[in-house]
Write a structure and sequence with these properties.
heterodimer; A: 161 residues; three-stranded antiparallel beta sheet; B: Cytochrome-c3 Hydrogenase, chain B; 2 domains; 8 strands
């Protein structure tokens, strides 16, 4: 169904009205508050902080009473990761089992959070840190020292409240 | 206007004004590539165009530049592991894709989810529809040379994305829906923030209309461009706002009535004309209807549990299932075959963009080259959705 043709006078009148209306909208928006931020602020405290439950960089939680990592190196996270970006090297047997090495390739990770959900002892968490970029791609593989250090400020798994 | 092919001679083209002077000059048809690196193809679509002057004689879309084996990956991962992949092919409608996949698996396993979970899923799907249509609106403005509406649309989309981030922990690829439930309940401030957004958003849509939709330059550009007849819609199995712009009130939310949609009041906006402007009007009206749906959902949102118990090792019975729902681009279907093991035997997506793109050669035949950009923008394709 085609549209009907209009007279030239009504088209001109419409054009004038629509252009004035459009300019009015831009004028109104000119006085609205700015929403864009110049992201890397000089003062780091002004940077955006995501809320709890954000799927950012990883951390291993330390059990502060026992003074050791909560992780029991059961390798459930390794098996359930869709991309296979986790590698855990267990050491010891039974209750003494602990991760000797723990690698997460953040470059391969798609931040789905399945590893955190399947953990039976809530030892692994995703933190609100979103600045994961490095100069060398090999540094994207997080090792156990980096993960432990990042986890020191966490007592529990970061969850949405 | 149809172009008569006559050995590529200029005198066959009805656009030529002074035919007598031009018949002596033989001309040839020109073959050019539009894309895959063309900024207005919304990704990496390659169109091979046969041109007669400025008019298109033939257009052949070449797809597959973004192929990522999304369907094959499903055969190698368990049912739970595939949910984050479902986000990744139609990235503007990630929640909707998850919704389709999760519903298919639940249907296969016979899992019933809780009422609160259903409501939250519908809230998420409708918010995603608003976000997706805002991207469409802004990009159509860009395609037709209007830069400002894009910025305003992204300002409003940011509010929706922030709510998604607070809820699911990600801004674009959420992985929020789970088989038998959700990742977590809504955060404490969610309902208030969303209600606030829904209060002012209809006024903002009116502003966009004043700025872009009823601008006379934009209207003249869109009206009569890319006429899509009802017959073409049926032949090519077009769905979504494209088919509603041609006057067929086909919406899976109404036709199938999945989830809680039968309990909600909303209209199916249609336009009779079938051109790019009609499709545009349908999408704008759909945003208003989504606001209506979201307001009802917030009112009726029940309390209670969000998750039901699902075994960690999910082994459905042998069988197959097809589940469809309405994505912002049209009818999204998920076909799943189970052989009784932990992994799907086969998964197939009925991707709406793929079907909608097939009609493009018919729409652009006889149009100007510059109109291709408008027509492509008005059928609203997402390239990973086409290539999967």
């Amino acid at each position: 169904m085609a549209r009907a043709k209009k007279a030239i006078t009504s088209t001109i009148a419409e054009a004038v009205v629509s252009i004035i209306k459009g300019h009015w909208v831009t004028l109104v928006n000119f006085w609205r508050p700015t929403v864009c931020e110049r992201y890397p602020h000089k003062d780091k405290s002004l940077d955006y902080k995501p809320g709890p439950g954000y799927k950012g960089d990883f951390a291993l939680i330390t059990d502060k009473e026992k003074g050791r990592l909560r992780c029991i190196a059961c390798q459930t996270c390794e098996r359930s990761c869709p991309n296979g970006c986790i590698r855990v090297v267990p050491e010891g047997k039974g209750k003494e089992r602990y991760p000797a090495e723990f690698y997460i390739d953040v470059g391969l990770c798609m931040n789905c959070g399945i590893c955190v959900e399947v953990c039976p002892v809530d030892a692994l968490t995703m933190t609100p840190d979103y600045e994961c970029s490095v100069h060398d791609p090999r540094d994207l593989v997080r090792n156990i020292e980096q993960l432990t250090e990042r986890g020191l400020e966490f007592d529990e798994v970061s969850r949405v409240k | 206007m149809p172009v008569v092919r006559n050995g590529g001679r200029r005198d066959a083209c009805p656009t030529t004004n002074s035919m007598e002077t031009q018949t002596a000059l033989p001309t040839e048809e020109l073959l050019i590539n539009m894309g895959p690196q063309h900024p207005s193809t919304h990704g990496v679509l390659r169109l091979v165009l046969t041109l007669d002057g400025e008019r298109v004689v033939e257009a052949v879309p070449h797809i597959g530049y973004l192929h990522s084996s999304m369907e094959k990956i499903a055969e190698a991962s368990t049912y739970q592991q595939y949910v984050p992949y479902a986000d990744r092919y139609d990235y503007l409608n990630a929640m909707g894709n998850e919704f389709a996949y999760v519903r298919a698996v639940e249907k296969l396993c016979g899992i019933e989810v809780t009422p609160r979970c259903e409501y939250i899923r519908v809230i998420m799907a409708e918010m995603n529809r608003i976000a997706s249509h805002l991207v469409y609106f802004g990009c159509l403005g860009l395609d037709s040379g209007a830069w400002t509406p894009f910025l305003y649309c992204f300002r409003e989309r940011e509010v929706v994305l922030q709510l998604f981030e607070d809820t699911s922990g990600q801004r674009l690829l959420y992985h929020y829906l789970r088989i038998g439930g959700l990742r977590n309940d809504l955060p404490a401030h969610f309902c208030d923030k969303l209600a606030e957004f829904l209060d002012y958003f209809p006024d903002r849509i009116k502003e966009y209309d004043d700025l872009l939709t009823y601008n006379v330059i934009f209207r003249n550009r869109l009206e009569g461009t890319g006429q899509l007849s009802q017959e073409l819609c049926r032949r090519y199995s077009i769905s979504g706002p494209n088919v509603r712009g041609s006057g067929i009130p086909y919406d899976v939310r109404r036709v199938v009535g999945y989830s809680i949609y039968p309990q909600l009041e909303f209209d199916i906006p249609t336009q009779e004309e079938g051109d790019a402007f009609a499709r545009h009007l349908v999408r704008v009206e759909e945003m208003r209807q989504s606001v209506r749906i979201l307001k009802q959902c917030l009112e009726k949102l029940p309390e209670g549990e969000i998750n039901v118990k699902v075994p960690r090792k999910l082994k459905p019975v042998v069988g197959e299932v097809f589940e469809r729902l309405e994505s912002p681009r049209g009818e999204l279907g998920c076909y799943l075959v189970s052989d009784g093991s932990e992994k799907p035997w086969r998964l197939h997506w009925r991707a709406p963009s793929f079907y909608n793109l097939q009609v493009l050669p018919e729409l652009v035949r006889g149009a100007y080259v510059a109109d291709i950009v408008i027509i492509l923008g008005s059928i609203d394709i997402v390239l990973p959705d086409i290539d999967r």
